Every structure is written in structure tokens, then in C-alpha cells.
Structures
1.
Amino acid sequence: MKRRRFLTSSLAASALAVTSSGKYLQAQTQSDTGAREFYELRHYRLSMGRQKKLADDFFRDSLVPALNRLGITPVGVFNVSIGPETPSMYVLMPSLSVETLATAEARLAQDAEYMKSGAAFLNAPADQPAFDRIESSLLQAFEKMPRLKLPAATATHGPRIFELRTYESASDQDHKRKVEMMQAGEQEIFAKAGFSQVFYGDTLIGPRLPNLTYMLSFQNLAERDRDWDAFRSSPEWKSLSSQPRYAFESIVSSIVNVILTPADYSQV
């Protein structure tokens, strides 16, 4: 527990130091108009068998309600339906405060209701672990889309799938150009093609840097294929992607792409 608190405090200090430096982030408060959200995106790697039910019970009954009590909402919980590793789950945690995300684990440890309801997951023995590994990334929303947008189907718990895409770049220069490109017209082309855009995030802390991650939503795979066909054939996309500033070299070196389905208790 002491080690966890130390790591949480270290993350908070690092994140706040970056924020105060002004190099990448701007200090924000809950009252800021147009403030950009931060996202913690967790990837839980699971094994076949009991871990999936244990994780579902924990997320539904313990983690999501406790995060909501901290002001972290809406919390998205997703199952990987098409991707390189299954079973696995993603948890998306948005907040206007980077400190709220960085100190969440320490504050959850003081939440008696969370510790009690989540005991089976939190106290799982080493020979029967609740998960294999967790990967976590801290992202900041793009300036042109500063807040997460819920798909229309979320309110009615209608059918929906999500596509989570991570674009890795070979250098910081290429990464910055890709972020710029997406905000210089690519997001508008997505909208014209019919995409429901959930969030765009520049990864500040996490594996395989530099990279950006964004999430799209569709009713089903057929709608996804139709929207991507419209995007790829768009004259606006062909014009944007051929501009010398973005086409002088491959500014995206690798794409990681997974298709997700929301848990029935997901708030996204």
C-alpha cells in the first residue's frame, strides 16, 4: 500500500509539474470555460475463466460508482471484441482535473464502501489473480474537441460499437504534425462521412510514445465500413492528406486498432 501511494503521489507530482510548466498543458479548474479534459485510459489484460466475471463485478459494483463519487464521470467500460488480445477490457476515465485522475487510487483506498464491495477483486491472492496486467495512459483532449461526446445511443442503451485507434509516430515532429492535421480538417471530414466522434487525446504518459488515441462510435460493423468508405473516398481527405506539410514523409508509423463493445453498465 505504501508503494502504491508513493507511485500515485509521484504521478500526481509529475503531471502537475508538466501542467504548471505550460510546455504541454494549461492549468485548469472545473469552472474553466472550454477547458480541455484529461483521460486515463486503462487496459486490463485478462485470462480465460474467472477473471472476466471478477472484473465485470468489480467495475459495475465498485469501481464505476466510486469513481463517480470522486467526480469522474461518465466512466466507459468496454470489452475487446476484435483486437490482438482477448479477453481484455478498457476503462475510460475523464476529468477536467489531472490531479483528480492522478490521486484517484489513493482516494479510492480511503473509500470504505469501495474497499468492501471490491474486496474479491482487490484482495485476490497471487495464485488466483484478478487480472494479468494493467496498462494505463494519461491523455489530454484535443483543443478542437475539448470534451468527450456521448453517442446518441448511450442515453437509451441502444446498440453501439466503438473503434479505438492509436496512431504512433516515429518522431515528436511527425506526431505534432499528425495532431495538427487531425485538427486542421480531418475531424471535419470524419463528421461529414457520418462518424460519431467520442474523444481525441494526445498521450502525455503511457507506452509507445509519441502517439495519439481517439475513439469513434457506430451502430454496427456495417455502418463502420460504410463510414470509412465515405471517408477514404472523400475529395477533402484526398486533398488534405496530399498536402506537402503532411505528405513529405510517413507521419504515422504504426496504427493499433481495436473494436470494442460497451459493458451493459458502461456510462459511455
2.
Amino acid sequence: MSFAKLILFAMILQLAACGGGVTDDLLPSGEDKRPDVEPGSVGTQVGQLSPDFNVQDTLDNSHMLSTELVSADAVVLYFTMWCPICDSHTSHMRSTIIPDFPNVRFFLVDYVSGSISASRAAQLSNGYATSTVFVDTHQTLFNLYNASMGTVVVIDSTGIVQMNEDYKDGVKLRQTLDALP
């Protein structure tokens, strides 16, 4: 048996050892398996009251969620790592969604740069000088919202999380914003 065939056989055995969980990954049900949310509870799942937070932006200004919500219909957080996919999502939001929702505050959340100056440099080099970018130096917001690259969180004016999922094509974000009270 050649070395390549031996490696291939070992890989097949490794996959077979994973058991029934492999087919779940290959054929996902689409079912939401998160626990039910208790009304009035504090958390980051849809239907929960978002915890308040305080974060710096790339100009070293402090932003509290509760303060941002005072004069807005909602706050939208988009978690970016300045990659081409994130740029595509952000460009799409800027051109097709943000103009239609002038009373919603949109924020990019940079959770990868590690400092205000590095985040500002990334913001400028990627063409987002006029956007407000939160600098999540210790990944506090990232961990709080169980985010990943491209996660979008919508928090309505009462502080309730209305959306917390990955950005796909903007349809769900638009539907969520259209449904705001």
C-alpha cells in the first residue's frame, strides 16, 4: 500500500471514528437549539434585555449602550475583522440598509486590532473614516454577544436584543429593523 493510500485510509478511519455527529454537521437541521429565553431576563439572546456596556471608539470617545439608545430606534453592532468578507458586508449595509434607517445607530466592532491606534489605522485604511468603530481590545463585546466574524446584533430602543446572528445577505437585518416599534 502506497504512503498516500495509507494516509487516505487513516483519514477515513478518523472521520468514521467521529460517529453520528459528522452527519449532523454535514446535514444541519436548521433548528435553533438555544435554550428558551425567559421574558425580562438579562442576556444577549433574542428577546433578552441586553446588558449595558461602555466601550471606546477609534477617536477615544466613550459610548454606553444605554446612552446611545436614548436618541435612537435601535443600535446595530457589526463585528468586523477587516477582511474582504467583512468589507463586503459593511459596504452592503452602508449602501442598501443604513440610508433607510436614519434613526438607527450603526457601529462596527473591531475585536482584532488590539488597540485604539491599530483599530483607527485599520478603519482608515479600509475606507471607513466616517463610521464609528468600537475598539473591543479585550474582546469584551465579542464574548458578551457570543459573536464571530460577521455577527450582527440589533438592540431596540428598550434594550431588547432583536437579532444576534451572522450577517448573510442583509434580508434578516432589514426585516428586523423594519419590525422595530
3.
Amino acid sequence: MMHIVRPHWAALAFACAVISAPVHGQATYPSKPVRWVIPFPPGGGTDVISRTLAQKLTELWGQQVIADNRPGSGGTIGLAAAAKLPADGYNIVLGQLANVAIAPALYPKLPYDAVRDFTPVTLALTSPLILVVHPSVPAKNVKELIALARAKPDAITFGSPGNGTTGHLATEIIKGTGKVRMVHIPYKGAVPAFTGLLGGEIAVYMSSIQPALPMLKAGRVRALGVTSAKRIATLPEIPTIAETGLPGYEVTNWYGVMAPAGVPKDVLGKLHADLVKVMKQPDVQQRFAAEGGDATPNTPEQFAVFIRNEIAKWGKAVRESGAKVD
């Protein structure tokens, strides 16, 4: 006698539905841990910003966002590593002015294209620099510094954390715009450069805000101006460089979230929306303020335009300065 095996129609229908359903996985993004590449060592500004946002996303998603420090070569090693990772939304990186906008002009053979190889997600933080001088310098503002430099070409020295750094090029823009000659003294990092200023080895230094604050309060250095378009809340008495000698001058250090090129649009939308959400949280804004900056989220499209403009601006600064990699 022949036995006919009848299918379990409910199970068969479910199996067919699973087979025919589109395999996107984006509806539940993220459904597994996310890697956050940090192109600098632990402890610096890039690391602090990255870990702050990574922790907030972990809390929001219920999925671990894992910090992955890949330091070296001014942040280019980490960015190059991130460019090669899968473009599935599970790999993101914090780019910044140095390795996104300055590096393309500074390094002759950069292992990535800052525009082609990445999907911009959002700008995260912007922070100005501050131009400070040794107390022995008689100039009280940028206009007076320019006049002093014109009267004594090559007599004034300015320091930086190294050739091609933001501080170096921000000062080179002052030189070029003001049509003056000052001698550049590169140091191996921000701490030795500031120490050189305090010791009188150099006369002028373009500093990040945070390290300059205690020295300003102690009277060990004098501020001539901040590099932002507007005065900053933490130092409202310090004018902008544009106000006091160079109209239109603006230099802003920045950090932005990026992903390997080709991230699906729905994943990009989810990632962007959640990053904006956490950046609006008061404790995140306070943490960013402690780094001397402001949370400044924008759209992926706006960030893409911003990156292109910054590459053009800083490429010109690098060429005019003659800066080369140490």
C-alpha cells in the first residue's frame, strides 16, 4: 500500500515566504556589533569624541559599538584601513581636518581618496584655534603683529606641532594674506611646541583652545585672536582674527563621521538620524564643549559639500606654504 506524505501547508508557506523575501537586513539595523575606527591614539580629541558617540549609540541601539584605534601618519593609516572595510553600516570612522582635507595635498601617495572612498554621514564637532604670543611680543592684536612682521621680515618665529599640521597652515594663511615673512619652527607635537612658546624659543603659536586656557589665565601667554568667524563663549573677550587685522579669515578644526563608500541609503539614514539624536543630548554637548568645540551635525549632502570645499581650501594653503611631511 502506498503512503502519500502530505506537506504541512503552514510550514511550507512560511518557508516560501522566507525564500522569496528580500534579504536586506536594514530594517533591524543594527543587528550586530558596529566597529568605530579611530585614526589616532587613545586619549586625544579624536578618541574622546569617538568614544563619547560610540557609547551613546551603544545605549541607544542595544548593540555594542566597538572602538578600534588605528593610529599613525597623521591619521591617514586609520582612514586608509576604514576605506577598505565593508560598506554595510557596521564600519564607521571619525575623520577630521588633518586626514580628510589637509592630507590629500600633503602626502604624495595617499592610500585613499577622501571623496571617492567614503560616504559622509555628518559633521560632528567644530572647534576654533587661538593665536597666542609670548609676553615679550609687543603686538596686542593681529594688526599690530602684521605691522611688526612687516617692519622686521623673518625676525619673528612661530611654532607648530609639525609641518603640515592645522596650526602650521593656519599661521601660513596669516602670513600669505598679510603678506609678511615669519620663520616657522616645527616641533614634534603640540606639547613641545607650547613648551617652546612658554620658554621663549618661539614668539607666536596657533594653539587649540583647551591647553591655552590655563596659560592665558596665568598671564604666561597673550591671546591675539581666535580663528572662528565669531567670538567663542568660553573666551568672549578675545576678538576674532577677522575682527583685528584679516577680514574674512576663518579656520575651524573639525571632526566628522564617515563610512566606507556605498552604504545603503536606508542604513545611512538610520545612522545619521541616531547620531544627530545623541549629539543633541545635553551631556554630549557639554563633553564637546570641554574639548573647546560645539556639536554641529548636518546632513550627509551638506557634509559632502563641506569636505570638498575644505579640500580645496587646504590644498591651496599647503601649496602656498610649501609644507612637506616630516
4.
Amino acid sequence: MADLNQEQQRELVRDRFTRTAEVFGSAVMQTRTVEAEILAEMVAAKESDCAVDLASGTGALALAFARHVRWIIGLDLTPAMLAVAQRSAREANARNVAFAIGNAQGIPFPDESLDLALSSYALHHVPEPGRVIGEMSRVLKRGGRAGIIDIFVQEDRRSAEMHDRIERVRDPSHVRTLAQSEFASFFSAHHLRITGTHVEEHPATFDQWMHNAGWDSSDPEYVETRRLMEETIPDDLAAFHPRYSVTRAAGSDEVPGIEMVNAVVFFSAEKIG
């Protein structure tokens, strides 16, 4: 796929997440709420904090953080995602959370104005992830905290390339997944001192993973993503830990399912300059 400019990439993200807003929202709410509690502890969220959640999607992270902070605003490019987030906020009667159209690469807050800047599962969708981390640092007060959750790749180049190849077929808005060392480099370059790192592995089925992206088993995107994933079963090159399911009935002609793991990394950091 040819490289896209910034606006083309934003339009691709809007299109993909407009299509999947409802199914994505229902699929991630429980997991993201649990993850938010982990991140809230890592960044020492407190009642006096004013916070922003970048690329907030359907609002699960922001809604969970609303229980810990003074107020939080979730910004996202996709109106359909924000509509789900706003509905969830109304249903939860969360009065200290708001959602608005906004770009993570140009946060609409003044320098040194916020206590917390958060992002979950967003950086692999942007061409310049370092710019987003730089914006997070810019809006934070000295001593303010940044919190990021995202997928990550192995440091090995071949593994990272195969991981991204699979992700791009599944989701054309995917740009590139960072290795943990790259996250650390971006933090350091923008005066953010890492205060905590945590890794979790989430077991999943391939079918559910594809369903969350809006694909059915008859779609070419599903077929090609499965083919690539199956290629990595012998050597786990892309680090999804895929294996065929053994739960199908004996003698069945049904194609076996694939079980896999999504690994995510949590970072907390403090602004020191």
C-alpha cells in the first residue's frame, strides 16, 4: 500500500471506525475498563486532575477515568465513535466527561495546562507517533503524567514486518506498530520519564478478532489475513502465538478455528522538563 498523506490517513481511520463503531464499542468496553483501572493506578490519577484522552474511540477509557479525576475530555476523529461514547456517558450519568472531534497530532489545549494525557490503541494508526507523544508532553504541566496503552512488536525486524503485514490486511488504517524501545525513545525525546511499564497478553479467537474489525469469513480480507496468520503457526514469526483450536467435533469437516494472543504494553511517564 502506498504511503498516505496525513489527511488521507485521517479519512481512512474515519472510514474504518465509522463502519465498526457499534461492534467495536460493545466488544472492547469490558476489556478497556479493566485496562483503564490498571493505567489509572500507574499514572496515580487523582480527584484534582484535569485530563485528555486522545483517539478516545467509543469512550471506554475516558469513562473509566472519569471516576478518578476532576474532569476528562475524549477527542477522536470519528463522529460515529463519538456518538457511541456520548451515549455511554449519558447512560452512566457521567457529568465530568465530554467528547469532541479532535486530532491527537494537534491537541486543542494550551501548553502546560493539563495533569493527565492518555492514549489507548491509537499510535499504530498514525504516521508520526512521536508527534502525538510530543503533543501529550506539550499540554502537560511539569510533573504531569502521560499514560499509553498499545499493541507492540518484537524488536526483531522480520517479526515486526510480518506483524504489520497481518495487521494492515485486517485493518487498512493500521500504519505501524512500535517496539517497546521505540516508545521509550519517543518518551525520552519529549522530556517524559517512564515511571512504569506493564505487559498483558489477551487470548482471543481469530474469528472474534476479525469480527471486531468488521469482517465475515467470506470476505477477502478475512481469507487473506487467515492465510498469513496460518503461515506463522510453525514459527510464530509475528508473535501472535497462533494455534489451531482443538475444540471442534471429532470427524467434522469444519475448518478448525485459530486461537491467538494479543500482547499490549502499558506505559506511565512523568513530564520532567
